[in-house]
Amino acid sequence: MNRTCSRNPVLLIHGIFRKSEVFNKMSNHLTQLGWSVYSLNLAPNWGNASLEELAQQMADYIDINFDPKQPLDIVGLSMGGLVTRYYLQRLGGINRVQRFIAISSPHSGTWTAYTLWGKGCIQMRPGSIFLEDLNRDASVLKKLNFTSLWTAWDFIIVPASSSQISAAKDVKLSVFAHAMMARDSSSLNAVAEALSEPLNMDK
Fold first, then answer.
1. ∠ CA(146), CA(179), CA(40), 5° rounding?
2. 147 inside domain
């Protein structure tokens, strides 16, 4: 088995109602550890835009800011994990991303999405056409070093187990509440650990 270790630029993708500032603590932590960290503001960020639109914004940012031959690692928070999955599975991102860490992302939807009516919110409801399509070939994500971080005490991703996905390495954290998953020390350490994992070149 051939395993190699590399340190790629890290792109942080925020979730609904958030902007890149949600990653301030994580960005500082990873920068201190030696990573080059990038982020962007998806707009609109309140669920009105479709996740496909936001993924295209992400793809455009990557095309502008990184050389086509530069491999990347991506951290997607909550909705940002689904935006990243669309980029990986539908926009060709899987050919250049090596590590993907999803943090409290509703891979099977969340019942709280029924409280809002924007395009993106509807897509995050359990059983949505968007999720059914992505999950139909989610096994392609096994080509990556894919890690899913989640907590049983989420309260935004309902049920919390929706953040589990068979294509990913499952990491359950003892973090209280969804909002803390971007800044709790155990989350920061888990992200750094996942970004440090050697690549399995046999994948």
1. 65
2. yes
Q: Is the peptide bond before 9 cis (omega within 30 degrees of 0)?
A: no
145: left (phi over 0), alpha (psi -120 to 50) or beta: beta
Q: How many domains does the chain have?
A: 1
Between 4 and 159, whose confidence is greater?
159
Q: What residue spans of the chain are helical by DSSP H? A: 24-32, 51-65, 79-90, 119-123, 129-136, 185-196
Taken as a whole, the chain contains a residue count of: 203
CATH number of residue 68's parent domain: 3.40.50.1820
Domain that residue 89 falls in: 12-200
48-68 in b/e form (b: 16+ CB < 10 A) is ebbbbbbbbbbbebbeeebee
Residue 202 is predicted with a pLDDT of 62
pTM exceeds cut of 0.85: yes
* 22 falls within a domain: yes
Short-list 139, 149, 134, 146, CA closest to 188: 149
Look at residue 99 and tell me whether its pLDDT is greater than 80: yes
